[in-house]
Structures are given as C-alpha cells and as structure tokens.
Amino acid sequence: MEKVIKLHDRNFKVMIPADKIEVAVSAVADKINADYREKKNPIFIGVLNGSFMFMSDLLKKIDFCCEISFVKLASYCGTCSSGEVTNLIGLNRDIEGRDVIIVEDIVDTGASIEHMVAELQRHNPASVRICTLFFKPNAYKRSIPIDYPAMEIGNEFIVGYGLDYDQLGRNLKDVYVVTE
Ligand code: IMP
Ligand code: MG
C-alpha cells in the first residue's frame, strides 16, 4: 500500500523516491563540472533553509576546487503598511570578481531568486549562475535564466529533501506531494 504521511493538517504521498533524486543530482553536477573546470575557485552559495540537503549531496559530486557558503533570505515587516521587505543575510565572503553558483531548493514564481541575484550583483561578481533542485516552469514569471535545474515539475506543492510545509518535512529523504 502507498505510504501516506501527515504534516500539520495535510496528507502527502511519495512523488520522487531518493534514488531518482540522486540520479538528477548527479546529472546536474556533471553539467556544472564540465562548465566550471577551468574557472578559478568558484563559490557555491546555498540558500537556507531549503537547500541544505541538496547542497550537501551536490557538492560531494563536484570535482573542482571551490568554496562553499550559505545565505538566508529573511522576510520581515518593514513599516507594516508597505508590506514585506526581504533581506539577504549571511553573505560574509567578498565575492567581487568571483564566479558564483547559487544553489536553491526550488524556483517557483522566481521572485526570491530574482531578489537574490540582484543583491549578489551589487557586489560585482565575475558571474552568477543558478542551480536549483526543482524548477516549476509553468509558474515561473521572471526573465533571468535558470541555468541548472536538476528536475522540472508542474505546479504541485512538494515537501522533503530540504523542502518544507510550514517548517515540517525537510528531513525526509524522498520528495512527497500533497494528496487529498
Ligand atoms: P518563488 O519566490 O515564488 O520562486 O518561491 C520560492 C520559495 O517558495 C521557495 O524557496 C520555497 O521556500 C517556496 N516554495 C515554492 N514552491 C514550493 C513547494 O512546492 N514546496 C515547498 N516550498 C515551495
Ligand atoms: Mg527557499
């Protein structure tokens, strides 16, 4: 029988088992290895919290010298009248002149990644490319290219392997989809 798990008020069933995720992670790592082998010490910047598991598995498959760092996009209520303000925290490396690869868990509408790229560009890196475990092309509304999507999915809501439903589910090794 199909395994169903409950997180808060919703039920989820397995959509992508761990072995399939591993194949996709290896394939995207191969592409990055081929493109960056000649570059000087690129920096991978993982976006917390969602990217922690992907970052770990991806970087074990990267075969060139590189640096690893993490940032967080923190949302807070600015004046509480003008809505939410998003801030990039934790960028503690000088990235000027460096080749940067952002590592995300999922790109949905693209609002977060667009903000992230704009923030990083202010520090004059040599290049910025985006690697994401999941990409929802039908939901994507921005124009910046998503260079290295490991897997493309529809507009369904998923959890596991770093992704959460209201902070639960990040520790699951398979990816689950919400079910009725
Ligand atoms: P975007 O700014 O619309 O691209 O959304 C990005 C953020 O929304 C991601 O970093 C996730 O935190 C969250 N998100 C979008 N889709 C999902 C999903 O299917 N499961 C879990 N989180 C998601
Ligand atoms: Mg995220």
UniProtKB/TrEMBL annotation:
TM region(s), chain numbering: none
Pathway annotation: Purine metabolism; IMP biosynthesis via salvage pathway; IMP from hypoxanthine: step 1/1
Positions of the Phosphoribosyltransferase domain: 20-165
Compartments in which it is found: Cytoplasm
GO BP field: GMP salvage; guanine salvage; hypoxanthine metabolic process; IMP salvage; purine ribonucleoside salvage
CDD domains (alphabetical): PRTases_typeI (cd06223)
Keywords of the record: Cytoplasm, Glycosyltransferase, Magnesium, Metal-binding, Nucleotide-binding, Purine salvage, Transferase
Catalytic activity: GMP + diphosphate = guanine + 5-phospho-alpha-D-ribose 1-diphosphate; IMP + diphosphate = hypoxanthine + 5-phospho-alpha-D-ribose 1-diphosphate
Endpoints of the signal sequence: none
Cofactor(s) this protein requires: Mg(2+)
Record-linked PANTHER family: HYPOXANTHINE PHOSPHORIBOSYLTRANSFERASE, HYPOXANTHINE-GUANINE PHOSPHORIBOSYLTRANSFERASE
Full protein name: Hypoxanthine phosphoribosyltransferase
Source organism (scientific name): Candidatus Alistipes avicola
